[in-house]
Specification:
The chain is mostly helical. It has 14 helices and no strands. The chain crosses the membrane at residues 7-25, 45-62, 74-92, 98-119, 131-148, 160-184, 204-221, 241-262, 274-293, 299-320, 332-353, 359-380.
Length: 401
């Protein structure tokens, strides 16, 4: 599909960075509870502090990346911070030390996603015929990493403990740092071009704000599922934790063809309509998870989950970039921060629900979140149509004058 070396390196970099997270994040909640002896509320506190610090720092960095800071340098620094984070977790066995490490290094590492995909969008707009498909392929690279990353991580954890999985993540992120430093272009867009279009202090429009709420509801549902399922399976159903690795891998395997086809689906049906279908698919997925404890049923249901995440993770970011074309770094990081906020929301909810009820009850909240996101998307589409009609009317009047 892509013949030039640089585009393939962007895709491979997305894959490698995805692999880092695939070895770390699925195990993190289990690590905090099992290895550090944290209660559900302590888990929520850890996630709250880690995510909130990441949101503030990455947003600060993103604003400056759209004006004068070098994206490649930011990407290297953020990935190096992530390396320090996962390397620390190899040896850290104190809860409060883990919180400190996550806040200090995790806050800076949060900028990596936004800067990588902002660089990718800038490169795609200038050198690739269809930048939407290119971004979708980069996002598919992340999904491919999640096909075998979580199963391998849980296998390593079962055989050698948490440290082995975190060590593999550290080695992988070291590879990512080397690839970015040596091969990724330094300045796809020059400082002069960025300064010319910089709108650093421009406020977010109401449609962008509404869309951010949609992202939070949709991904809060997904992240609550990701956070609660390891605990639900191991502590309540008391089944082999390898179930989770296989389920995550199955979902990621289903995401890949969806992500690769997302651009074409958006061209035919419209971006927002495809996202609506994806969120509805997610709602049906959570219904299946609520009504079944069979491994076969839960594994097959991952097809619905794969469509849900494949569409939302790919087109969700592209739609926000399209709304903020003059601030790609801010748009990409805003999307990333909404994902982080959704992690924050889901982390608080899993602690509250786990403390007051049980981890199974978290699936009800997942379903409600998906339904609310679908309703808000329909409202968004209606408002978007009205806005287009209004703009076309104003253009027509201006043309007559």
């Amino acid at each position: 599909m892509y013949k030039d070396k640089t585009s393939l390196l962007f895709i491979f970099t997305a894959f490698v960075t995805g692999l880092c997270g695939a070895f770390f994040y699925p195990l993190s909640s289990l690590f905090i509870v099992e290895e550090l002896g944290a209660s559900p509320m302590m888990l929520s506190l850890y996630m709250t502090l880690a995510v909130s610090s990441s949101v503030f720092v990455s947003h600060f960095i993103a604003k400056r990346s759209d004006s004068h800071w070098n994206r490649k340098t930011i990407l290297i620094v953020s990935l190096t911070s992530y390396l320090l984070l996962v390397s620390s977790f190899v040896v850290v066995r104190d809860y409060w030390l883990a919180v400190t490490v996550a806040v200090v290094f995790g806050s800076v590492s949060g900028a990596s996603f936004g800067q990588l995909f902002a660089l990718g969008r800038e490169y795609g707009d200038r050198h690739i015929a269809n930048s939407t498909n290119f971004l979708a392929t980069m996002r598919a690279g992340l999904a491919i990493a999640w096909v075998f990353g979580p199963p391998a991580a849980f296998m390593l954890k079962a055989q050698f403990g948490f440290s082995a999985a975190f060590a593999v993540s550290a080695v992988t992120v070291s590879v990512a740092v080397l690839i970015v430093a040596k091969f990724i272009p330094d300045n796809v867009v020059s400082k002069e071009e960025r300064s010319a279009v910089s709108t650093e202090h421009k406020p977010l429009g109401r449609m962008v704000v509404l869309y951010c709420f949609i992202i939070v509801f949709a991904f809060s549902a997904n992240n609550l599922y990701i956070t609660s399922m390891p605990l639900y399976l191991s502590q309540e159903l008391q089944v082999n934790v390898s179930w989770l690795g296989l389920m995550f891998g199955m979902a990621a395997a289903c995401e890949i063809p969806v992500m690769l086809a997302a651009g074409k689906m958006a061209e035919k049906l419209g971006t927002i309509r495809v996202i609506i279908l994806g969120v509805i698919s997610g709602a049906f997925f959570f219904l299946v998870m609520l009504s079944s404890t069979s491994f076969t049923s839960m594994l097959i249901a991952q097809i619905l989950n794969g469509f849900f995440i494949g569409v939302c993770a790919t087109l969700g970011m592209v739609a926000l970039q399209d709304m903020m074309k003059d601030r790609l770094g801010t748009a990409s990081t805003l999307f990333s921060n909404m994902l982080n906020i959704s992690v924050l929301v889901s982390s608080v909810m899993v602690g509250v629900v786990g403390e007051l009820y049980n981890y199974y009850s978290a699936l009800y909240l997942c379903f409600v979140g998906a339904v609310i996101a679908a309703v808000l998307l329909i409202v968004f589409e209606i408002l978007e149509k009205k806005q287009k009609i209004m703009i076309e009317g104003q253009c027509a009047v201006a043309g007559e004058v």
